[in-house]
Specification:
InterPro entries: MIZ1-like_pln. One of its GO terms (biological process) is hydrotropism. It contains three helices and ten strands. By secondary structure, the chain is mainly beta. It has one domain. A nine-stranded mixed β-barrel has the order 1-2-3-6-5-4-10-9-8. A hairpin with a 2-residue loop joins β8 and β9.
């Protein structure tokens, strides 16, 4: 499912809703954002001063390119997990820049989470094509602050057991929303979103979208398992959110 390394426009594969290439999110004739509010959306909590300072210097951190090739024997997650909820997950970003993770109730809703990860987009999508990838995001428990786990601002990032920098939660930018709007007809697929004729120094804007099974283990632990359509032997991705301490 990894996007091909090509400068030509690629139509999304395994798309269950449309067969046309998504329009450019940078086009002058941008479509209006018509994404719906998620059913459980509430007002976002205020970021602390420490978090704002951390986010301001986050982009100066080096981009980590982990190997992500540790073999792990886990059964596939093609079928519905008891107690799980189906969500839409999208990995997207410019090929040479950091990857972003968006989680939505479905492809037509505004994202409930945008997380910027210190992993190169092209490298992560390439490694996913080689087999199973496990992303673990950990943060410390703060008993004095009663917030939901997906509202935590900063995470320590691990890819297949290797520490790979940080993940930072942020509000959706205009470009994030245009990417989500452009991809809203697409349920599953991977490819390149057409951009302007001007070449971007960070490469093509690539994406990978799939259904994920959300399993809430406790108030301090949630897991998202990528669901392969029709039980095929495609790449596997698991994302773990854990508060420790």
């Amino acid at each position: 499912m990894a996007a091909q390394n090509s400068t030509s426009e690629i139509s999304p594969c395994n798309d269950t809703s449309t067969t046309t290439s998504p329009a450019s999110p940078r086009s002058e004739s941008r479509p209006p954002v018509s994404l719906q509010q998620p059913s459980n959306k509430k007002g976002s909590s205020k970021s602390s001063k420490m978090f704002r300072r951390f986010r301001s210097v986050f982009r100066s951190f080096p981009i980590i390119t982990p190997l992500c090739k540790i073999p792990i024997n886990l059964h596939g997650h093609d079928s519905h997990i008891h107690g799980g909820t189906r969500m839409t997950g999208t990995l997207f970003g410019y090929r040479k820049a950091r990857v972003n993770l968006a989680i939505q109730e479905n492809s037509k809703c505004l994202p409930i989470l945008i997380l910027e990860l210190a992993i190169n987009t092209g490298k992560l999508l390439q490694d996913m094509g080689l087999g199973l990838v496990r992303i673990a995001l950990e943060c410390e428990k703060r008993p004095s602050e009663k917030i939901k786990i997906l509202e935590e601002p900063i995470w320590t990032l691990y890819c297949n057991g290797k520490k790979s920098g940080y993940g930072v939660k942020r509000d959706p930018t205009d470009e994030d929303l245009m990417v989500m709007q452009t991809l809203h007809p697409i349920s599953m697929g991977a490819g390149v979103i057409p951009a302007e004729a001007t070449e971007n120094p960070d490469g093509e804007l690539t994406y990978m979208r799939a259904h994920f099974e959300r399993v809430v283990n406790s108030r301090d632990s949630e897991t998202y398992y990528m669901m392969n359509p029709d039980g095929n032997s495609g790449p596997e991705l698991s994302i773990f959110f854990v508060r420790v301490g």
